[in-house]
Give the backbone structure.
Amino acid sequence: MAQRIMILATNGFEQSELEKPKANLEQAGYETAVVSLEDGQIKGWDQDDWGNKVDVDLTLAEASANEFDALLLPGGQINPDLLRVEEKAIQMVKDFVNAGKPVAAICHAPWLLIEAGVVNGKTATSYHSIRTDLKNAGANVVDEEVAIDGNLITSRNPDDIPAFSKALISALQKQQEKITEAA
């Protein structure tokens, strides 16, 4: 059975930061599911205007971290700002982190990690405008295309998507190896 990755997003996600990692994961043989606050479709933000719509596979109320192997958090300014005030979204982030499953956040999505209280003492990166937020939450902030600390994977912007996707796929492979060894 293919490993499953939850993509938690809502309206205003940065289009490339959802679509490209999703495509990279699926091309590598992983199953993805878009989880959002409501069913139907959510609309992306494509640089400076509204972009494509994406189908929602499950609502946040229907989803459980137990059913997935990793969490992908696309950025954009609007998307994580809307999600970080949703208690169920923050709890979902905590559930993945506490279970030791890979959690990958790009651009402004580390706001969700900050809100979940999981970056203190961790090395992380983000879009430049929220690095002070990360630092104030206790993170060791770096300016690198991808920062990996335990099960947290963070990147800065759409230019980092190849390295971001590669880091998440590598974490999923390591996770599968551990499961295989334990069996």
Summary: The CA atoms of residues 174 and 180 lie 10 Å apart. The first strand starts at residue 4 and ends at 8. The mean pLDDT is 97. The first helix runs from residue 15 to 27.
